Each structure stands twice: as structure tokens, then as C-alpha cells.
């Protein structure tokens, strides 16, 4: 018997990795800078929102006050218009004219500018009593704030 010779292969030696000396890893900065920056931006945004909200609410209060003032002025205007209408009635004008001593004219006169003469010389104005058929001033002017217009009184 023969023994067959086995072929022996040489063992491969594994290559060794090449190692080199490196410096130690730099210390990693923490997230504190990023967190502080994000917090500052968020705080600034919230402060701006707060200031805008305060500004809008102040504007709202000012608008409300101006609307109330406008309504009060409208009421005052309406009262003044009513008073002016009351004082402008023919009856009131006649009463006030009589109270200062004025009397109605008895006749009309005309001046002719071409001849510089007065035509139809008026007579002496006489103190007269007011006619009995004069319509009295509407009672609406002596009552409350409701006004329906001259001649449109609601009963």
C-alpha cells in the first residue's frame, strides 16, 4: 500500500491591518447652543404676538369709544335739528317778534328807482292782537324725544 502523499499547501498569513495613530476625537459640542437659540427665537416670536395682540385690543377699545362718541354726537345733532325746526315755525317766529315789540306791517310800499319816489305810502303800523285762527305750535315740541316731523304727528 502506498500512501499517497498529500500535498501540503502553505498557510496564508492574513495581512495585518495597517494601523496608524490618530488624535483623540474632538469633544462634541452639546446641543445647548442650539437649544438656547431656538428658545430665544421662540421667545421673540411670542413677545411679538403679545405686542400685536395688545395693540389690536387697544385699537378695539379706541374704536368702541369713538363709536359711542359718534352716537352721542348724532343724538345731540338730532336734538339741535329738532330745536331749530321748533324755533323756525311761523308761530314761534311771530311770538318772538311780538315779544320784542315788532308789529305786522299794515300795507306794502314800493320804491320806483327811476323816479326815486315811494309808491303807496304805508299807513302807521298798528299793534294788533294775533288772529284767533293761528294754529298753535305743535305739542310734539313740548313732549319727549320722539319726533315724527312737522304735520305728521301721530296720535
Quickly list its features:
2 strands, two-stranded antiparallel sheet, 2 domains, 2 helices, 155 residues, rod-shaped, mainly alpha
Structure notes:
- Strands 1-2 form a two-stranded antiparallel sheet.
- It is mainly alpha-helical and 155 residues long.
- The model has no long low-confidence stretch (mean pLDDT 78).
- It starts with 31 loop residues before the first helix and ends in a 36-residue tail after the last strand.
- It has two helices and two strands, in the order ααββ.
Which helices and strands, and how do they pair?
Layout: H1 32-87, H2 90-99, E1 110-112, E2 117-119
Antiparallel strand pairs: 1-2
What is the C-alpha radius of gyration, as a whole number of Å? Answer: 54 Å
Strand order of the largest sheet: 1-2
Span between termini: 151 Å
> Could you spell the SSE succession in H and E letters?
HHEE
Low-pLDDT regions:
none
Mean pLDDT: 78
The level of helicity is: 40-55%
Please tally the β strands and state the result.
2
The oligomeric state is single chain
> What structural class is derived from the secondary structure elements?
mainly alpha
Count of DSSP helices? 2
Question: Main sheet?
Answer: 2 strands, antiparallel
Number of domains: 2
Strand content: under 5%
Question: What best-fitting shape do the alpha-carbon axes yield?
Answer: rod-shaped
Amino acid at each position: 500500500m502506498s500512501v499517497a502523499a498529500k500535498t501540503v499547501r502553505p498557510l496564508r498569513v492574513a495581512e495585518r491591518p495597517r494601523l496608524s495613530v490618530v488624535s483623540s476625537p474632538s469633544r462634541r459640542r452639546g446641543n445647548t447652543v442650539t437649544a438656547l437659540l431656538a428658545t430665544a427665537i421662540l421667545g421673540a416670536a411670542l413677545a411679538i404676538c403679545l405686542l400685536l395682540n395688545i395693540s389690536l385690543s387697544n385699537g378695539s377699545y379706541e374704536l368702541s369709544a369713538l363709536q359711542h362718541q359718534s352716537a352721542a354726537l348724532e343724538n345731540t345733532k338730532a336734538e339741535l335739528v329738532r330745536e331749530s325746526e321748533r324755533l323756525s315755525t311761523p308761530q314761534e317766529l311771530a311770538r318772538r317778534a311780538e315779544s320784542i315789540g315788532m308789529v305786522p306791517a299794515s300795507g306794502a310800499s314800493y320804491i320806483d328807482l327811476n323816479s326815486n319816489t315811494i309808491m303807496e305810502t304805508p299807513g302807521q303800523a298798528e299793534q294788533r292782537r294775533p288772529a284767533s285762527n293761528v294754529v298753535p305750535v305743535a305739542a310734539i315740541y313740548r313732549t319727549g324725544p320722539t319726533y315724527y316731523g312737522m304735520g305728521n304727528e301721530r296720535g
